[in-house]
Design goal:
By secondary structure, the chain is mostly beta strands. 8% of the residues lie in helices and 60% in strands. The chain has a 22-stranded antiparallel sheet that branches. A hairpin with a 6-residue loop joins β1 (2-6) and β2 (13-23). The protein is globular, with a radius of gyration of 25 Å. The termini are far apart. 13% of the residues are buried. Residues 317-327 have low confidence and may be disordered.
């Protein structure tokens, strides 16, 4: 239900009351949204305004929400889990933007992910916090954070994303940033990792940044630090970075340096490449360079994913309720 007025001279919409209710297939209410106070929406350019004290204008409530009804069999994946209750608000900030945010994490309990009836991740609790702004500049996801824990509340993964999307015909995305942290011991105890040798310590850290102005760029880095295989001991620390630039009329340049550090020393490799248009043909050049490669360190990572894990691994059986050692 909506009640408001439109100023035909200015095109400004005055929204006095807005109510949205959504029920699931069984008739249970899963979403409610209503106005907390009247606010104005300008169309050209897009902007929001509110009179008087207090800038919160919208409140939405989710309860309960089952992931299996929200994401039914997407790309062959089945997701289960439930959000008991969650709230988020819309407020008008001093720059005339509508900012939508959840003040407290939206918590999904007993989350399970499978594909073709094969379990991948199970017994997860996932917390989501976010803040998204809508304005004439488009959509700005100033924070979108996900934290996942496994059995026994052991840390599993955390993801943080930020994006700026003008959502215009000329440009749909201006920038996108992602930070990821995985706790390798608890990750290796999940069904999806059963084919990989078990780990009892370590973290994987990754960050990626995509930009489109003044030209397209992609930069990122991946680190594996403090990893320890249950049977073979400490793995070398791995650091890899990527820098890609795509400049119109100049082509694409790529740089990927990689290092491995262990008690044996440092291995380093660097891949660089260029892609250019010469006449009617694409010309691609690649150079692989390095000062030292320590073969046993390379083999440790190679065997981690190529050699099958032992059946009935003790650490995985106890690990469903265990914790990763402190580092």
């Amino acid at each position: 239900a909506q009640r408001g007025a439109v100023d035909l001279g200015t095109g400004i919409i005055e929204i006095d009351q807005l109510t949205v209710d959504i029920d699931d297939a069984s008739g249970s209410r899963v979403f409610e949204m209503h106005t907390l106070k009247p606010f104005q929406v300008a169309n050209d350019p897009l902007g929001f305004a509110v009179r008087g004290g207090g800038r919160r204008v919208l409140k939405a409530t989710l309860s309960p929400l089952k992931l299996q009804s929200l994401l039914p069999g997407v790309l062959g994946f089945d997701v289960e889990g439930e959000l008991e209750r969650g709230e988020f608000y819309g407020r008008v900030d001093r720059r005339g933007r509508l900012v939508v945010a959840a003040p407290n994490p939206l918590v999904f309990n007993d989350v399970r992910l499978s594909r073709d009836a094969t379990p991948l991740f199970e017994q997860l609790q996932i917390g989501l916090t976010y803040e998204v702004a809508y304005s004439v500049a488009g959509l700005e996801a100033r924070s979108f954070d996900i934290d996942a824990t496994g059995p026994g509340s052991e840390d599993l993964a955390s993801v943080s994303m930020r994006a700026v999307a003008p959502l215009t015909a000329r440009q749909t995305l201006r920038s996108f940033d992602l930070d990821l942290q995985l706790h390798l011991a608890s990750m290796s105890r999940q069904p999806a990792m059963r084919e990989i040798k078990p780990l009892d310590a370590g973290r994987l850290l990754a960050s990626w940044s995509l930009g489109t102005v003044p030209h397209r760029t992609l930069t990122g880095q991946v680190k594996v630090l403090g990893a320890r295989e249950t049977d073979a001991g400490r793995l070398p620390d791995l650091r890899a970075s990527l820098a890609l630039d795509a400049v119109p009329e100049r082509g694409v340049t790529l740089s990927v340096p990689v290092t491995l550090d262990s008690a044996r020393g440092r291995s380093d490799l660097a891949l660089t490449g260029t892609l250019r248009t010469v006449g009617n043909k694409q010309r691609f050049e690649v150079l692989l360079d390095g000062r030292q490669v320590i073969a046993p360190d390379i083999r440790q990572y190679y065997s981690l994913v190529t050699e099958p894990a032992a059946d009935g691994d003790v650490s995985r059986e106890k690990g469903q309720s265990g914790h990763e050692p402190s580092m």
